[in-house]
Design a protein that fits this description.
This protein is α/β, with parallel strands linked by helices and 270 residues long. Strand 6, helix 9 and strand 7 form a beta-alpha-beta unit. Helix 1 packs across helix 12.
Length: 270
């Protein structure tokens, strides 16, 4: 049985920094010698395009497949009607000691495609099972909802983290998200542990930002003391397909290192 730590990055709202945290947590872990697999489950493919140029992704998707193949969404992609396995799908060494399972637009319709499907929450776990022992850490970047890709990520996770930006809509969904994750955990007879709530993209214009951040800290014990500020360098690093640790903004690198250290300590990899 695999002893990998599997961390899902989840929130019901987009624009809260899930991708930045997922990618740079994976990159930091790799830099510290932790063999890591980054799994992009968002059909918007932001983690994928952070790591790969679009043309590179297109070639990989056509020849080797994507996470959509692991779900069984693309049997039409070859004449035999067979999907590709995880060893074929993985893109090796997108960062030091970090491999990638790239995403695909096909995930946008997965809930319709899987309507009534049996054991649909466990397809990803079964697909990844043959290679999990090769990794110390698996990081899942989830879409901003609790649809089938997120359910699959949580169904195989040991832990989850919740990025939250200090704005009203982001804040009010935290309690609902925690409740639904607990319900899913109970339904699937799992023990998915909350590894932390991360204040992210701090500094964006938001009414009552400071009071919302304080309220989150008062209500939830899991909120980290360290936080991630809104920085142009983060999006610029994504555009250049490098982690923040290789971009040159020392302040951004320090913040992401602090957050990554907290996550890795929570999951007992540091």
């Amino acid at each position: 049985m695999s002893t990998s730590k599997i961390v899902s990055c989840v929130n019901l709202k987009g624009g809260v920094g899930k991708t930045a945290i997922s990618v740079n947590l994976a990159a930091y872990a790799g830099r510290t010698g932790i063999k890591t697999l980054l799994v992009d489950l968002d059909p918007q493919t932001n983690s994928t395009f952070w790591c790969l140029e679009i043309k590179d992704w297109e070639k990989h998707a056509a020849k080797h497949g994507t996470v959509a193949d692991l779900f069984g969404l693309r049997p039409h992609a070859n004449a035999e009607g067979r999907t590709k396995d995880v060893k074929t799908v993985i893109r090796k060494n997108v960062f030091n000691k970090v491999d990638l399972v790239p995403s695909h637009l096909d995930l946008f319709t997965i809930d319709l495609d899987f309507a009534g499907a049996i054991a649909r929450e466990t397809r990803l776990r079964k697909a990844l099972q043959p290679i999990l022992a090769e990794y110390d850490l698996v990081v899942c970047d989830c879409p901003p909802n609790l649809t089938i890709p997120t359910q699959n990520a949580l169904a195989m996770s040991t832990h989850f983290i919740v990025p939250v930006s200090p704005d009203y809509l982001s804040g009010i969904g935290v309690a609902l998200l925690l409740k639904r994750v607990k319900q899913l955990s109970n339904d699937l007879e799992l023990n998915i542990q909350n590894a932390g709530i991360i204040l992210s993209r701090v500094g964006r214009r938001a009414e009552h930002r400071e009071s919302l951040a304080a309220a989150l800290r008062n209500r939830f014990d899991e909120v980290y003391d360290c936080e991630l500020k809104e920085r142009v360098s983060v999006s610029n690093a994504a555009a250049r397909h490098v982690s923040v640790f290789d971009f040159g903004d020392k302040a951004a690198a320090s913040e992401f290192a602090d957050v990554s250290i907290q996550v890795l300590k929570k999951v007992k990899l540091l």
